[in-house]
Specification:
164 residues, mainly beta, four-stranded antiparallel β-sheet, 1 helix, globular
């Protein structure tokens, strides 16, 4: 009986992994309670090659405690030989009625946000991607210090075509 259960778990795991054939890299960092404006989430990446193009995404998980219709992020990519590209990006997080966007049936929504398309990692070595929020409230000069409702920040690299 135990062998049958182990076999079923193994088969189920293989099915789940094989369903995501585009994934090259996918990692998340948890946010304790609130995402502080000075808290930078860093991801160390070893690209698989320096020839093929890849699509890059920022992934966010949020709860209904997230009270804004959008989010501003500062995403920085540090190349192995020191070059740095820094972008300030805005993403929609809710529709005009206030309903949160993203996938998920329960309290947590997952948002897969485009960062860059068809990126070729032409330098060999380790890349670092740093992500922090840059939220501001309308009419206020200072930024939001602690952002509620974001539970996890992720970074994902995908092959533009399926490997199947």
């Amino acid at each position: 009986m135990r062998n049958k259960v182990l076999f079923l778990v193994l088969v189920f795991s293989l099915v789940i992994v094989s369903c995501d054939s585009k994934r090259i890299y996918d990692d998340y960092k948890s946010v304790p309670d609130e995402w502080n404006k000075d808290s930078i989430m860093s991801f160390k990446i070893q690209p698989p090659d320096s020839i093929n193009p890849y699509n890059l995404f920022v992934n966010l998980r949020n709860t209904n405690k997230y009270k804004y219709s959008n989010i501003f992020l500062i995403v920085e990519m540090v190349f192995p030989h020191g070059k740095t590209i820094k972008d300030t990006l805005e993403y929609r997080m809710a529709d005009p009625s206030g309903k949160l966007l993203g996938t998920g049936l329960m309290d947590v929504k997952e948002n897969k946000l485009w960062y860059k398309e068809a990126v070729v990692f032409n330098e060999s070595g380790e890349y670092t991607v740093n992500i922090q929020h840059a939220m501001r409230e309308n009419g206020k000069v200072n930024g939001v210090v602690s952002l509620e409702g974001i539970t996890d920040i992720g970074f994902r690299i995908e092959s533009p075509t399926s490997n199947k």
